[in-house]
Every structure is written in C-alpha cells, then in structure tokens.
C-alpha cells in the first residue's frame, strides 16, 4: 500500500490528512494558520513541517506524494517559495501546490466540471470546464479584493457604524454589537483597536455573523451589507461560469468557507442567485483537505 498527504492551509488553521492510495484517512494533524502574505515563509514552513510530522507519526507511514491547497498558490513566486519549503521538509518530488479553492472543488465535485465559491475570511471563485480550461475571479486579498468575504462584510459594518456616528449615514443596530465585539466603549476605542496594533483581520471577519444576526432582526444597514456581499459573490461565480461557457451542460457549484458556514442566510441567498437548470449548487460536506488527498493520489498514479 502507498500513502499520500493532503493539506488544507488556511489563514487561521491548517489541516493535514494522511491517507492510503484508496483515499482512506489513516492519520490527521491540525496546525495554525499558514499564509505567506500574512504569516511569512518561516512560519508557513514551521506549520507545514509540524502537521506533516504529526500526521506521519499518528499513521505510522511515510507519504510518497503530497498536495497542498493554499491561498496565493497561483502566483509563480509564491509557488516557488512553497516548493522550496517542501524540499526543506523532505518532499522533493511528487508535490502538488495549488490554491485552496481547487482542493475544495475536487472534494465537492465528482464530475470536476463547474466551480468552487469560497467565502471565508477571504473569497475566491475557481472553476474548470470539460475541456480542462480554468478560470478564477476574486481572491486578490483583503487590501484590494476578497469581495463578499467575512472580512469584506465586517469592514463595511465598521464603515457604516462610523458614518452613523458622524451623522453621515443612518443609525444602525450594528453600532453596539460592534463595540461589544471589540470590547470597547465607543468610536475612539474602536479606532484604537483597529489602528494601535496589527490590523485585526480575523476579528473583523468574524463580526460578519453578527451582521447577519442584526439583519434577521430587521436592521436595514446590515441587510444592505449582506445583499451587497451576495451580489459580489454571485458576480465572481458568474464571471467564471461565463468565461468557461459552463451553462451549455450540467455543472457543479461547490460552496465552502467559514463565512458561508456562519452565515446561513448569505449562503441561501447566493444559492438562490446561482441556481439554474444546469447548475447543481451545494455546500461542501467534506473537508477541503480531502480534495488535496485526491490530487496527491492522482500525482502518485502518474509516477
């Protein structure tokens, strides 16, 4: 029996699954966040080394192939850096490095035709058609992109609260929820929480769930933010659908990511917007790391 390692590296956690060549998982390991842009190369190497060692130790087997899904892997420089990391931790061949949306797509689509729409701290749409052509939209990072993501929703909530405090926008129930979330007394405390230390991206993103709670209670500002998020996520997915000409035959739309999981109303809205006669829209019900396992198996089969 031969063995493979599949890794899903995210901004807040990294999951490794060691499996045999049939896909049966025999060892698992969980580590911290691993993102080159936010954590740096050294920290990413530490995390990947840790989860690989722990998974091997628990399984008692050494994998012959490894696949990693991580944000930024489409950039040639980042891919080269990650390939160097794997060489240093003992994987010199049979290494697949790809983006996190692709492993989610592989985990959730049997036919491998369609797209994955990821909505977590960040967001991205990634798809493949029957001809093997690939397209993506979004996923450009929190400074200039990730539209519709948890961070995007949280940041717009902050902006709306600040506008309301100045009288430049309508009053909103988000104000007190936001102060409580950041454990501050008012706007000045909020500004200090945002600017005095490293920007609290994850904390901003997790506020998205409270935006949906406010929307359910009738807050129009919160509802408007979520409606805009659904529009942005739908646009990203539709861009991929159009560029790959997917509507000519049945295809899958795999929804995944922590923000979708935490905001069922947003997920339902996006599902409604993307459902067509050809599109099978569904939430990923497996770990994205299982897609990495499958890619590693396929790499092993080619050897």
Describe this structure in words.
The protein has 303 residues and is an alpha/beta fold. The chain has 2 domains: 3-98, 2-Layer Sandwich (Nucleotidyltransferase, domain 5); 111-284, Nucleotidyltransferase, domain 5 (2-Layer Sandwich). It is built from 13 helices and 10 strands. The strands form 2 sheets. The chain has a 5-stranded mixed beta sheet, with helices on both faces. Strands 8-7-6-9-10 form a 5-stranded mixed beta sheet, with helices on both faces. Helix 5 (150-166) runs antiparallel to helix 10, helix 9 (208-216) crosses helix 10 and helix 10 crosses helix 12. It is globular and about 65 Å long. 47% of the residues are buried. The model has no long low-confidence stretch (mean pLDDT 92).
**CATH architecture term of the largest domain:** 2-Layer Sandwich
Give me the number of helical elements.
Answer: 13
Count every beta strand, where a strand is a DSSP E run of 2 or more residues. Answer: 10
Q: Which fold name is given in CATH as the topology of the largest domain?
A: Nucleotidyltransferase, domain 5
β-sheet strand percentage: 15-25%
CA-atom Rg in angstroms: 20 Å
CATH-wise, what's the superfamily of the largest domain? ATPase, nucleotide binding domain
Helix content: 40-55%
The span between the termini is 15 Å
Shape summary: globular
Low-confidence stretches: none
- The top level CATH class name of the largest domain: Alpha Beta
- Structural category: alpha/beta
The helix/strand order is EEEHHEHEHEEEHHHHHHEHHEH
Number of domains: 2
Strand order of the largest sheet: 3-2-1-4-5
Q: What's the pLDDT, averaged over the residues?
A: 92
Report the sheet with the most strands, covering strand number, pairing sense and barrel closure: 5 strands, mixed
